[in-house]
Design brief:
Chain B: It comes from Chitinophaga silvisoli. The structure holds 2 protein chains of 2 kinds. In chain A, about 40% of the residues lie in helices and about 20% in strands. By secondary structure, chain A is α/β, with parallel strands linked by helices. The chains are: A alpha/beta, B alpha+beta. At the A-B interface, strand 1, helix 2, helix 7 and helix 8 of A face helix 1 and strand 6 of B. Strand 1 of chain A pairs antiparallel with strand 6 of chain B, so a sheet runs across the interface.
Chain lengths: ~240, ~110
């Protein structure tokens, strides 16, 4: 009989729990949740290396002018570089159509509700498209600065595009994206006189997160700074 | 909602290790510097585990605080954000040693 409450079911309950414990099994796992993605990313990276393709993961929030920058780049450099594009879009083929209009080989990945591309999607896109060897492959990620940060696609360079209409504290709001990027493009600098945006502050914020981050400021409207971006591409190509 | 992808990743790993047995508990290592929003994570979890071996599983989450080593002066310290400065010399040139974990540590099956 139980000394605390006077019941005599305690022994039974206890032994029941005890038996139960014995049927459970503890399994050590120690496995990264992104293991599968990272494995496929490594595979994509091997593919790019073998074909001498400079793969660039382009990330941004919506409205940064990323697709316009891409269009402009493809048009300006098409005589000099063999481009291919993988376009990640949640629903429409609008962006892919714009890229197609420049005469560039493009394949679209429809992510549906998914807010980011992953290495698996890119692997399948690669199988279908056969990107140009010795060229540059742009992978335009879904417009979102949070979700794509954690997913390595196998790219060689990650480029984050922001515009002066977005606020100079953007890097601090999305530290992971700036932390994992190699280059930050600050776009639409022709609008600087009209918006409360400090270039110095934005760059300082970005460098606080990632001191190794390269920064290029440009405008697709005025063309200012595009030469620096093209030089950057050339320098990473070989 | 990349949290759903993360949850699906967890389900894949756990399903592989559970070998067909229903899962009672999953222990995760989740670094404080990962961009996982816990509310979104819980929502995604509730949806995604339906009809899987994890349907009845409880989650035991080890939050791991961020740690960094300053590459300028060698100081080792705790960080709350990746843009924190070295507590000794103020440098932002850091190597993050802890806080990026996203791992299934162990599980208990019935
Ligand atoms: Zn220091």
């Amino acid at each position: 009989m139980c000394a605390t409450c006077g019941c005599d079911t305690h022994t039974h309950t206890h032994s029941h729990t005890h038996t139960h414990d014995h049927n459970e099994k503890h399994i050590a796992v120690e496995k990264d949740v992104l293991y599968e993605n990272n494995l496929l990313a490594a595979r994509n990276r091997g593919f790019f290396d073998a074909k001498n393709i400079l793969a660039i993961n382009l990330v941004s929030s919506p409205g940064s002018g990323k697709t316009t920058l891409l269009e402009r780049t493809l048009t300006d450099l098409k005589e000099a570089v063999n481009f291919s594009v993988i376009e990640g879009d949640q629903q429409t083929t609008r962006d892919a159509d714009r890229i197609h209009a420049t005469g560039t080989k493009v394949v679209q990945i429809n992510t549906g509700k998914g807010c980011h591309l992953d290495a698996h999607m890119v692997m399948h896109a690669l199988q279908g498209m056969h990107p140009h060897e010795n060229g540059i492959l742009f992978i335009e990620n879904v417009g979102n600065l949070v979700c794509p940060a954690m997913f390595d696609l196998g790219e060689k360079q990650r480029v984050v595009v922001m515009s002066v209409t977005e606020g100079d504290d953007k890097p601090l709001k999305y530290p992971d994206m700036f932390h994992t990027s190699h280059l930050c493009i600050i776009n639409k600098i022709d609008l600087l006189p009209y918006v409360p945006f400090s270039l110095d502050k934005a760059i300082a914020n970005a460098k606080r997160i990632n001191p190794k981050l390269e920064v290029i400021t440009l405008s697709c409207t005025s063309g200012e700074g595009l030469d620096k971006w093209y030089q950057w591409l050339e320098s990473k190509k070989s | 909602m990349h949290e759903l992808s993360i949850v699906m990743g967890i389900i894949d790993v756990v399903t592989e290790y559970a070998n067909g047995a229903p899962v009672k508990e999953v222990t995760l290592d989740l670094g404080c510097l990962t961009t996982i929003e816990m509310f979104a994570f819980d929502m995604a979890w509730k949806q995604a585990v339906k009809g899987t071996l994890l349907e009845k599983a409880t989650l035991d989450i080890n939050r791991i605080e961020g740690r960094a080593v300053c590459l300028e002066c060698g100081e080792e310290f705790t960080i709350a954000e990746v843009y924190d400065a070295c507590t000794r010399c103020g440098s932002h040139l850091l190597h993050i040693t802890k806080g990026k974990e996203l791992k299934v540590r162990s599980l208990i099956i019935f």
